[in-house]
Amino acid sequence: MSAARTTIGLIGVGRIGTMHAKNLQALRAEGVDLVLADAHRPRAEQLAAELGVRAAPGAEELFGTVPDGVVIAVGTSHHAPLIRRAAESGIPAFCEKPVAQSTEASLPVLQTLQETGAVVQIGHQRRLDAGYLEARRAFRSGELGWLHTIRAITCDMFPPPVEFLAGSGGLFRDCSVHDFDVLQWLTGQQIVEVYARGSNNGDPAIGKVGDVDSATTLATFEDGTLASVSATRYNGAGHDVRLELHGSEDTLQVGLDGSYAGRSAELEVGFPLGTHHQTFHERFASAYREEMRAFVQLVRGELENPCTAFEAVDASRVADAAQLSLETGVPQPVRR
User: Fold this and answer.
1) Are both 50 and 112 inside the same structural domain?
2) What's the predicted TM-score (pTM) here?
């Protein structure tokens, strides 16, 4: 199949959809053709003209062209019906996380995928990041020994609009879920219990919509290993996403490079010297490019699924437990 050209349809050309479209168009020389669609047709047509690709009148018309694969980059409320539409049409799909607006709403989607055997990749892009891949390799090879301490950090430089937060499900579900997912993927173990605490010292409006602007989760794995997962909306130095793996044989850090959003208190240390990232788009630019390349390879049958819908929903279950722990003030088991 890879010798022939591969047509990828993309639904939703907002900020992240536009990024995916540009990354897919960069694969044109590798045999990828792109078709765009958006609920606001002129927006799709404008981007299509800029990229020199085709635009369909809408999502249904795009499905009617029977593309080889479809990328779903629309609002969360539209994820589930479009995933099921693709599954029932036998078209492999990539969809931004989450699978649906809640874990409960995801379950009928998973049932459809089981019944149809459909191929669906969910957008947990950290699995395609070079640093996280190397950390996984180093741990799985035994180079680090057994892990005694894991620290995962996701710090946004500034919060998204309060309107987004009001429907995002909260800091654990829209932010820390990335750490929950990548930690389970990296270690090969499930998180079985979480204890979460949060605070609000920034915009009071965040608290008024039921969210926190900073939080830490203590996660316990099947073998008893502990991990701290910290997140905030207010990291003034820049966007900071890192992972520390402290093992009995060695220690490894992901994201500790010249762009690290911080500075040393040791006067003789000049590191870091690079420009700090401001958003996750910059921090994971390479991972997002690899994510689209991986989806094309998945469609062509050249690669195993980097992140299944079942794995993504499992990370959402951990986020649900963290939210419940925050609300109740006590540790919560992850219910599966």
Assistant:
1) yes
2) 0.95
